[in-house]
Amino acid sequence: MTENGSGSGSGNGSRGAGDRPRHRVAVLALDGVLPFELGIPQRIFGRARSPEGAPLYEVITCSVRPPGPVRTDADFDILVENGPEAIATADTVLIPSSYQLGEVYESGRLTDELGAALAHLRPGTRLVAICTGGYVLAAAGFLDGRPASTHWSSAAHFQRTFPRIKVDADVLFIDDGDVLTSAGVAAGIDLCLHIVRSDHGSAIANDVARHTVVPPHRDGGQAQYIKRPVPEAQLATTTKARAWALARLHEPIQLRDMAEQESMSVRTFTRRFREEAGISPGQWLVLQRVERARYLLEATDLSVDQIAKDAGFGTAQSMRQHLQAALGVAPTVYRRTFRAIPDGGRPRPQAPGAEMAATLRPV
How far, in Å, CA of 351 to CA of 287, rounded? Predict the structure, then answer.
């Protein structure tokens, strides 16, 4: 959806919370689709419920051809019951990864089938791509001049093929308002959870994450997953220190305090922490405090001053500076945008859309 849209959809789906139409997500299954990624939208959006228990999304799967079998990259096909015309009914169109994109991958040109299928898109439809699904959006021109992410191993090829795109291989996903892209495989879960959170708030997104047994947010970016020559893995980890810090976000926390929890020197702790989390301890701590502040702004009536103290920023001014840097908005603007409304729905951010990409960037 565009910035004026909402998680409730535009009237095409089945009825949901408050007898409003559910937001319809059409998943475009291409030949060579990865079954894991194809199942992510149903698992995440299909689990999202309003506080009253009503489904918030309707997920349908469609093909570029009339209903029938679609090849996967596994040893089985899937039977898709919707043709490309289903795209015209969608509020969000999501394209999972495929390893058989042919000329879309090789030369950056849409096939006739894909071009005809995407011609069904209605103005204002939100577009989402997981991993190499971004090649389809790029070939159709939807990413020209915009930031986008893809799997780190494809990033250089993606940039060469589509030089007008601002490819960022360091983040797990990028939200550029009405067009969103993610890195590979599990980053699709991160992106879909982010969409649920943007549409309906952290409480609902966290509930989906708990039932999916995944973290609501992952620290760091893709850099932590790129294979590099590194020393042999050590037995010691920084998990205990992170748990200790999370229980004390409202208190001043020094780097030496975290290192002491693991009986390490500050230098060793910092190195191990970065190897595990992909960011420094200080960056990680700021991100956790930002997330704590976001939750309190959304879910409580606490004053901005009190939230700043509870999240460990100390002062409202400090919290404003950190939220502005991470999210692009002030605390009061964020609260006004994401506070629950009576029927359980939440609007998407009105502005600025692109800044939400900072959610999983080191700050």
Answer: 21
